[in-house]
Amino acid sequence: MIIPLFAALFSAVLAVPYEEYILAPDTRTLRPVLVYQVNGTVTDAEALTGDEPNGAVFDGPSGVTFDYGKNIAGLVYLTIGEISDPDQYISITFSESSLWISGERSDGTADSGLDEALYIRPSGPGVYTVPRERERGGFRYLSLAHNGTGSVEVKDVYTHFTPMPHYAEDQLRNYTGFFHCEDELINRVWYAGAYTNQMCTIDPRYGNALPFLRIINSGDNLTTPVPWFNNYTITNRTSALVDGAKRDRLVWAGDMAIAVPAIVVSYNDLISVQNSLDSLFALQNASTGQLPYAGQPFSELGIYSATYHLYTLIGVSDFYLYSGDYDYLTSLWSDWKRAMAFSLSFIDDSSLMNVTSPADWLRFGMGGHNIEANSILYYTLNAGLVLADALNDTTVVQNWTAAAAGIKAAANTLLWDASAGMYRDNETTTLHPQDGNSWAVVSNITDEPAKNLAISQGLRERWTPYGAPAIEAADAVSPFISGFEIQAHVRAGNATRGLELVRLQ
């Protein structure tokens, strides 16, 4: 009895805790789990689902939409059997939502319009794939369409999963942290967040090339599909954390402020975080200290963002907090201080930073003595003081401490609206933004606990059936900024309210 008992205990130790919630695959070869819909004549379409596929025949104009059961990413492969003649084509399109399923185009990656389909013209039986620059960053539905008059036999269709390129196939589900509670929805959200970050960790040679940046705009009404390419090298490393699996597939420091803590507590992939931070510091202006709004190729526009500049500095602080990598912090410290000096140069006689660039997270009206930007600066100054202490650098303490104190006092004097129980966006408006009020609590720029409670209540009163609106962005429901609102509710002592927003949004 001892040996079987030992074997059972050993097996239990090896089991992955809560593995039923982990969405990461255990193989990089992913096949559809079911057929969503069929158009025209397709014989045995269901035979192409599951792990033991058999052939399906597309006869005349016909198509199939397959469902992978969740968002995935990668390169599509087709195994072709018999074809009626060499003039047969199979088109490939993608969609994250069933609302955008089409046999002619994919959901869009540009600021407007839909993406062009990919085409395979088989010359005979064999395995065919799309070019590597056409790997799709995020999709659940895969549509194959045949528009000819002949027939094509497709014997297999699968996607090679490309996220987490630096992980071995059998390591994708090897989480180092786990979460479980009595609320099944919260459990699923936690693990979905971890998987989303894995999806956003890519081979940096295949970032978005942005071929239509500043050519196609969000207000354009496009009627023809748009070409798309994922073949821009965003950093010369093995992996990179980007803002989105499908778009933009670029390094944005603001998104890292949300993603990095979640990565640390789930699968702890700090090397990808470091690679992305390095790509931003490589673009720092050596004379002014200015950091880019985003990584390459977006950085080529030369846009400055007061907030995203600071998010990069927060990224270094977070990295050191979670890694304890003293040498890495030391290597960036002079650049970090130069970047902080650049931000502090915008503080005027009011003791607040005067924001001169509208660039932020696509909200409207960024500028002036903005409460969001000043709260982030206040937060970053205090993070910098912690880093300076770790490095025993006393040269910055007096200046940064005074600047932080001035920002806090001025924000509460000039921007606090006692009648509303919230901060104004700046002195010239009555708008009480989601981003700035959330960040005010997160940064502790508030000067009394009652303000935290008032802000939490004020933000809660604005919720809609779809989530927390950002009135500074025309009531858009932003998962990005709502991430900071959730933190604000928790820091205000309303953890229950924070969880309510997680469930709602």
UniProtKB/TrEMBL annotation:
GO terms for biological process: carbohydrate metabolic process. Pfam families: Bac_rhamnosid6H. It comes from the Eukaryota. Residues 236-429 form the Alpha-L-rhamnosidase six-hairpin glycosidase domain. Keywords: Signal. The keyword DNA damage does not apply. Residues 1-15 form the signal peptide. Transmembrane segments: none annotated. One of its GO terms (molecular function) is catalytic activity. This is Alpha-L-rhamnosidase six-hairpin glycosidase domain-containing protein.
